[in-house]
Amino acid sequence: xxxxxxxxxxxEEIKRKIRKARKNxxxxxxxxxxCFKIMFANQAHLETLTFxxxxxxxxxxxxxxxxxxxxxxxxxxxxxxxxxEERDLVVYVKxxxxxxxIEVTYDKELLDHLGEYFLExxxxxxxxxxxxxxxxxxxxxxxxxxxxxxxxxNALFLLEFNPYFIDKDHxxxxxxxxxxxxxxxxxxxxxxxxxxxxxxxxxxWYYNTYKSDEFxxxxxxxxxxxxxxxxxxxxxxxxCLQDINTTLEIKKLIKGVIVKMxxxxxxxxxxxxxxxxRKRLNDSALAYSRKRGxxxxxxxxxxxxxxxxxxxxxxxxxxxxxxxxxxxLSQEEVETIINSSINDLEGYKQSERK
Length: 354
Known about the structure:
The protein is an alpha/beta fold. Helix content is about 55%, strand content about 10%.
């Protein structure tokens, strides 16, 4: 735990960073949770939300105006399992009977550059997307009314704005995942996961390469949207808004909300102290990796885990019967582990005393 002095010094350091950032014209990117929710997941700003959905789904703004509905982002334990889950934005799009779940991820280290990022250790981000998909599936199924069949389910799109690619061989600015068999045949068009790399979008926009014939009009809109979400200063916001095809009123609203939310010291404080979110992702990734290792039958890993479990319980003076029951091992297996590790037990006991 932090001492009172350490906590005070950290707060002062955050204030110093905020002053420096504002002096240099920096802003909180829209990919931070606070800013994204203020801008789009807000009943008071349905115009900006309608703008976002129109660009994502390539639909006319006028068609969507008044026809989108913010859905609850929080699902209780009883509806989805043991944990209460919350997502950044859940929207029902009435004209096309589609539920859209949007998630944003901020990573300062990645957004500070204009490079193209692929994940070497992908576990923490994969588990995040899988967690989002499980959530989406649970919400989707629970949306059925009593007595309704699954043919009544709406289309479901999970959209991720991230500063990376999941697939290291990917060359586009976005990735699309669907349910397919081994021959590449799609099971349904009604379920999609789309990962848009905002760093790649910002690079394509920054160097004007997005204007080439390589991209169609919808793809250009998505690139500009990704660039806007990852803009680092007001100058970039202004340039990006000039390029985006939307009304002057919406551009003014977006700019006004960005300016207002960047006056919020609490949001800046969370921006510079994101360790809790990182810890949660790392904990999830660790649990996922262990589970995957067990499922894949990594015998060495299983053996080492069982040995550690048995030795830890033995040093806590649990009976052999209790150790057998908890570990799922036989009496002979438990005794073999203890006897073969007898020289290490004193070290275990000393570490436990500490």
